Amino acid sequence: MIAVFYKKYAIIILVSAVLLNCSTTVQKSDELKLEKTISLLSVKGRIDHIDVNLKGGIIYVGALGNNSVEVVDIMKGTVLHSIKAVDEPQGVAYIPQRQEIFVANGGNGDCYFYNANSFEKTASIHLSSDADDVRYDSINEQIYVGYGEGGIAVIDAKSHKQTGDIKLTGHPEGFQLDKKLNKIFINVPDVHQIVVADLSSSKIITTWNTGDYRANFPMTIDTIDHIVFVGYRNPSRLVTMDENSGAVLATTNLVSDVDDIYFDETERKIYASGGGGFITICQWEKPEIKQIAKISTRDGARTSLLIPTLKLFILAARANGSKAAELQVYKTK
Question: Which of 2.30.30.180, 2.130.10.10, 2.60.120.200, 2.40.37.10 is the CATH number of 47-172?
Answer without folding.
Answer: 2.130.10.10
